[in-house]
Amino acid sequence: MAYKTITASKLTPTLGAEISGIDLSQPISADQLADLNQAIADHQVIFFRDQTLDPASLKRVGQYFGELQAHALKGLPDHPEVRKLHADETSKHVAGEEWHTDMSCLAVPPMGSILYMHTLPTLGGDTIFASMYAAYDALSPGMKTYLETLTATHDGALAFGRFDPEGKFPKAVHPVIRTHPVTGKKVLFVNRGFTSHINGVSREESNALLQYLYNHAENAYWQVRFRWTPHAVAFWDNRCTQHLAVWDYFPQLRSGFRVQVEGNPADY
Ligand code: SIN
User: Fold this and answer.
1) With a 6 A CB cut-off, is 96 part of the ligand 1 pocket?
2) pLDDT tens digits for range 161-205
3) 3-state secondary structure of 179
4) Phi, psi (deg, nearest 5) at residue 13
5) Which of 20-34, 61-75, 167-181, 186-200 has the lowest mean pLDDT?
6) Shortest-distance atom of ligand 1 to CA 127
7) pLDDT range class, residue 160, cuts 50, 70, 90
């Protein structure tokens, strides 16, 4: 895991690394891009401190990694691919307050998301990420074999329906066990935020199995908890992680913005 242009400090034995030696507000060279792509493959989620970004420069960073996805929820007027994340004393909910993989309700979910936070509460507002490689690896051989035979439905109505009961939301079917297109490693691919049911089994079996798999996916042994500082950036690989935004700072302010990088249709 030696890189030419950056340094990575691991945050846990399983996932997460803080990257230093790069200013994301500046153009990214081919060597830097190769290192960042390698770092995301190596660490699943990477973090950067003390960056100075605005919506246009965050968008530019994201575009080095692929097309940007216009989110199901509204983007900024001048930058539809950039979504503001903001919580304050008027908030009734915050984005990501339940464990999820971003937009797994799409037939081709985003490969990753890049979140920049400029304003943070004095304490709290951490984001927790979990490794779905580790979750898969820790399943018993019999359970792995069984899960390989299953698909699950991921339904946007689960995540967004309560804000817009009349709305139409995407729905997709994905294998319960997927193979990461870059690393070739297997991942557990169900999440509490979007997965509505396992296909082809009874409702009882689906509910019981999903409950077990959610608890398993969220095990503290394969988590990293990121303590934000103003102007930090998190870039997570959505194909092998889940995350949770901890809303323990109400009524304080937490604000930033994010982009989602499109997945590759050939991988789904
Ligand atoms: C999200 O994308 O789920 C939000 C993450 C966060 O606000 O920390």
Assistant:
1) yes
2) 888 888 889 999 999 999 999 999 999 999 999 999 999 999 999
3) strand
4) -65, -20
5) 61-75
6) 8
7) confident
Q: Which residues make beta-bridge pairs with 8?
A: 19
Q: Which two tokens stand for residue 215?
A: 């608890």
- Closest ligand 1 atom to residue 254 Cα is 7
What are the C-alpha distances in Å from 28 to residues 155, 236, 237, 252?
36, 18, 19, 34
What structural domains does the chain harbor?
7-262 (3.60.130.10)
DSSP 59-126: HHHHHTTSPBPPPSS---SS-TT-EEEEE-TT-S--TT-S-B-TTTTSSS--SEEEEEEEE--SS---
Q: Are 102 and 259 in contact (CB under 8 A)?
A: no
95 lines ligand 1 (CB under 6 A): yes
